[in-house]
Structure formats: C-alpha cells, structure tokens
Amino acid sequence: MSKPQKQIHLAAHFPGVNNTTVWSDPEAGSHIEFSSFAHFAKTAERAKFDFLFLAEGLRLREQGGKIYDLDVVGRPDTFTVLAALAAVTEHLGLTGTINSTFNEPYEVARQFASLDHLSGGRSAWNVVTSWDAFTGENFRRGGFLPQEERYSRAKEFLATTQELFDSWHGDEILADQESGVFLRDAKAGSFVHAGQHFDIHGQFNVPRSPQGRPVVFQAGDSEEGREFAASSADAIFSRYATLKEGQAFYTDVKNRLAKYGRRHDQLLILPAASFALADTDAEAEELARIVRRQQVSGATALKHLEFVWNRDLSSYDPEGPLPDIDPDVSDNHISKGRAQVRMYRDPLATAREWRELAAANNWSIRDLVINTGNRQNFIGSPETIARTINEYVQADASDGFILVPHITPTGLDAFADKVVPLLQEQGVFRTEYEGPTLRHHLGLAHPDDVQDEQRVAS
After folding, report:
1. Among 114, 327, 451, 458, which has the highest number of CB atoms less than 10 A from its own CB?
2. Alpha helix (H) ranges present in 203-242?
3. Each residue of 187-216: pLDDT tens digit?
C-alpha cells in the first residue's frame, strides 16, 4: 500500500531589504508603503497560503563605514505592519521576526498575545538572536552575547513568554458579593519566573489568546539552533536548496524530536525558495539568467566579495579576476550588521575554493558571485514548478516552502494564479482554509491538547 501524499505548506516572504529583490525593474514598488504590504498579503491569502513572513532588522547595515544601499528604504516595525495587515486579511497567518537578545519576555509576550487576539489566532513568532555588538549599540545593554549564551537566553526567553501566555489558562469568573460585579480569579495572569537571565513576577494583562500561544519559528542551522528547534519550535526554516541536502537536514532535525517527547508532525521544516516562472521552461531559464544578473551588479559583486576578504575591494574590476591578496582574518569586520560575516567561518579556505572555481570556469568576480550565491530554487513553466515542489515535499526534503519573489509587491501574483491551481488539482494543496487559526493551517495542535497528550503518555 502506497503512503498517502503529504499536504504542501506554502508561505510568502515579503522581500523588503535583501539581495533577492530587483530594485531596477519597472514593476518594483515601495518596500515601506502599506499598499505594498496589503497587496502582497491579499495575494497570498487569495492563493490560500499558510502565512506571510516578515524579516527584521534592528540597525541599518554598513559596509566600509557607509550605509548599505539596500537599507536606505528603511526597516518598519514588524508588529505595526502585522497588526495593520490583520485588519485587511481574514485567514492568512502573520509571522514576524522578533529578537530575543534585545527585548524582554513580558513586552514581547504582550505584543504577540495582542496580535493573536486582533487577528483571531493568526500570529507567529520567528525567534532570533543577535550576534554582534554593532546591533547592540542601539540598545541600553549594548554589547553582545557569545553563541552559547545567546541560545541559552533565547531558550529561557521563549520558556518565559510561554509561562506568560499560559498564566491565563483555566481562569475562573467569580462574583464579588459586595460590589455585585464579576471579577476574574486573582490567579489568572499571575506568573513567577526566576532563572539565569530573567527574574520577574507579576500578572500578565492579556487573556489567553485564540491559539493559546503564537506559533513559534526558528531559523538557526547550527547544532544549538537545531536542538532549540527540536525542543521548542513549531517550525524551522532551512537554507538547503538541493534535494539531497534538504533530505539530510530534514532527517537530522526530525530525528531529534523523540528525545523531547515530540512526534515528527509537531515540527515543520520550511525552506525559503525563490522562483523564475514563465510559460515555458526555456523562457523561465532565460528569465532566471536575466534576474540573476540584475540582482548582482558589478558593485554588488564587489561588496559580496568583501564579506569574505574583509577588505576594501572597490579598486578591483568586477568583470576581472579575483584578488591575489588573501582575506583579512582579523576581528575588525568591514561589514557591520550582516549575517554573511558569519557564513564564511574560514575565509582563507573560502577564498582558495573560489579561486579554483573561477580558474576552472574562467569566471570574473561578478560571474563567481552569480554562480555561487543564492539562485532561483524553482525555474520553469507552471507545470514544472508545481511538479518539482511536490517532488521535494513527497521525498521528505521539506514540508513546504516560503516563497521569496524578486519583485515587490506583485511578484507573487503569477505563482498564485498559475502554479497553485495545479497543486490543488493534484490534491496536495488546500482549496479552502480548514480552520480560523494559523495552527489549523499548519496542522498543529493547540498547546493545551499537546500538554494533555504528554501527561497521558507519561
């Protein structure tokens, strides 16, 4: 007997400030005006996507002491945007990246519980940490934490917010005989937490939300990040683009769940994925080539190379060979506030590898960046892309994808109109929303039901 087909989860990442967006395209719109957010969200909801995802930036990034070009448009506050989108959507989940290093549990719990009420149970939190002192300069505490302490704080931060969410569980309404009014039980909303990072007590002032707690996402790929996701998250992002790499990550993370008393279906794995969609595969290949060269200008290629070389390379020709000089491996990074600084943990080895690739393929600096950087994950006609997405999910390389179009805000429109109907025809993607909350969309149980199940099992 063949196993039943898995249902595909689809979400949409509002591109905002990143290297996927093609700013020069005539169709490109604002990344900060509400009309762009609203169009994008309504398209995702029309296509019956699970959720919309917003990234976060707590400081404008710099390179060589200058603000990075893509950041000039600014970075609006996540909660403000999601609250506004709750008013113009009915079903779409609303996922925001909120930092656990420079915020406080009470404040974040209150904001997410409020968003969950305003949206009718559609909020989700991507829990992240900050690794650099550059970002910390914007905050009272300043500085930064070593990686093991960041994850330690993040775990306690999440546990503390969950205590706050759960503090209203089982509250009762009591009648006050003298005043004749109804009062909530004084135990409702009460919390006490004493730990390594937080020592707080009081009463939480937002009642139990429709989902009980927001859905929790995690994005780390390190050993600590994978364990954090297996122990505490409802979904984890993945950066792996190939089928084989995706399957390896999927198997590794899912196999970690048992030690925490969790089933495979209690954690979803959702890689980000860009796409180039056209009427035919050949047209899509040509579109992908054009888009990639638009994404990586000569100046962008040099800036990307500086992430590894940690030197000012502005004097080099982007259409010429790679620098002969080795990377500067000191701790004085030329790039400030950029995650790429962490991606290349051995710059000397990366430089050697890139020189070998460039020599073997006769690549210029720009060619190298185009061919080694982020590329479209799905390229082809609607039929090809629908088939490929389904193959990845059924082969356990993912549970679905978070799509990142290269045009904002209309870049998702064609996918919604041409690819989604094909997935629906195959019976692997919903034609209507199954329930009102994001947990319904993702097939995740209410936290109370999970706790009851764990108590019975123990």
Report:
1. 327
2. 223-232
3. 667 888 988 888 989 989 999 889 989 999
